[in-house]
Amino acid sequence: MAKFHLRKAEPKDVPDILRLIKELAKYEEMEDQVILTEKDLLEDGFGDHPFYHCVVAEVPAEHQKVEGYSVIGFAMYYFTYDPWIGKLLYLEDFYVMKEYRGFGIGSEILKTLSDTAVKNRCSSMHFLVAQSNKASIDFYKRRGASDLSLEEGWRLFRIDKEGLLKMSAEE
Amino acid sequence: MFLLRKAEPKDVSDILRLIKELAKFEEMEEQVVLTEKELLEDGFGDHPFYHCVVAEVPKESQSIEGYTVIGFAMYYFTYDPWIGKLLYLEDFYVMKEFRGYGIGSEILRTLSETAVKTRCSGMHFIVAEWNTTSIEFYKRRGASDLSREEGWRLYEIDKINLLKMSSK
């Protein structure tokens, strides 16, 4: 049984956060798409106006299974706004290293986030899941999650940088 | 003739009115439980949880009921762990009698400028799959359907279940 504790991320955690973001992206076969740097993460998360928040899971030095790493899981979240009900907690990334799964670390992270959401008077937690990701879908459904895309027909759209520049240059 | 500007605290009652009008269009008006007080605290306090752009017409052009604020867009900043900051468009609405004059296009152009100026990598938003008019409006401006291309589905854990989890 791995001993672990959860805490708010600090500036010193930025290299570990980037490492875990890349590991999760690798699992989704998208590792080369991570162009974010430690500098970006530091400015964006620990400046005057944080654009994201992180919770990290840490194990004591003696429990390290993988050479040199004690930060072995994380969740990245931020607050969004629903014009009908107000504040929401949006779960952006959520990952525990393979060697540390099965010990309830993921559940504990989600519980901590639920606490945070309730304390901040958020009406609910939102997040995206790829429809191919059955394991995650089951994990969330066991905790009462509902598929709003299925129930309400919502589809996520994007206008990328090129499209934005094109529009903003139009007269 | 119209002008676009950043919303101010005084606009809160117009913003709520337009939110309710848009919800009515989606046949969900009774679902709007947000109050003017909350909109004020959440948008104009120390830490704004949303930003608004409003479209205003001169008094001579006001709506049938006497309104001069006749359109709005609500947005905030989100974060993509692969590329960083994004601008997220949450609500976007122009009153029916003021459509067809390019107000919507101008609002979207303003938001694009804001996104570029604040170093966002893109703009995200959700659209209901049955809303073909809006889908076409966005596709004409280069929007791609990430739900279709990448299979993303939006999930929710509501308050009841959050409380359940946090009390375990």
Automatic annotation (TrEMBL), chain A:
Q: In which pathway does it act?
A: Amine and polyamine degradation; putrescine degradation; N-acetylputrescine from putrescine: step 1/1
Q: Where in the cell is it found?
A: Cytoplasm
Which ranges carry the N-acetyltransferase domain? 4-170
Q: Which GO terms describe its biological process?
A: putrescine catabolic process; spermidine acetylation
Keywords assigned by UniProt, alphabetized: Acyltransferase, Cytoplasm, Transferase
EC numbers on record: 2.3.1.57
Molecular function GO terms recorded = diamine N-acetyltransferase activity; spermidine binding
User: Do the record's keywords include GTP-binding?
Assistant: no
Recorded catalytic reaction(s): these are: an alkane-alpha,omega-diamine + acetyl-CoA = an N-acetylalkane-alpha,omega-diamine + CoA + H(+); spermine + acetyl-CoA = N(1)-acetylspermine + CoA + H(+); spermidine + acetyl-CoA = N(1)-acetylspermidine + CoA + H(+)
Pfam families noted in UniProt: Acetyltransf_1
One GO CC term on file: cytoplasm
- Please indicate which superkingdom the organism of origin belongs to: Eukaryota
Coiled-coil stretches are none
Q: How does it assemble?
A: Homodimer.
Similarity-based family? Belongs to the acetyltransferase family.
- Protein name (database record): Diamine acetyltransferase 1
Q: Which organism is it from?
A: Triplophysa tibetana
From TrEMBL, chain B:
Q: Name one GO cellular component term.
A: cytoplasm
Q: Which UniProt keywords apply?
A: Acyltransferase, Cytoplasm, Transferase
Report the subcellular localization: Cytoplasm
Catalysed transformations (reactions): spermidine + acetyl-CoA = N(1)-acetylspermidine + CoA + H(+); an alkane-alpha,omega-diamine + acetyl-CoA = an N-acetylalkane-alpha,omega-diamine + CoA + H(+); spermine + acetyl-CoA = N(1)-acetylspermine + CoA + H(+)
Swiss-Prot/TrEMBL GO biological process terms: putrescine catabolic process; spermidine acetylation
Please verify whether the record's keywords include Coiled coil: no
Q: What protein family does this chain belong to?
A: Belongs to the acetyltransferase family.
Q: What is this protein called?
A: Diamine acetyltransferase 1
Source organism? Triplophysa tibetana
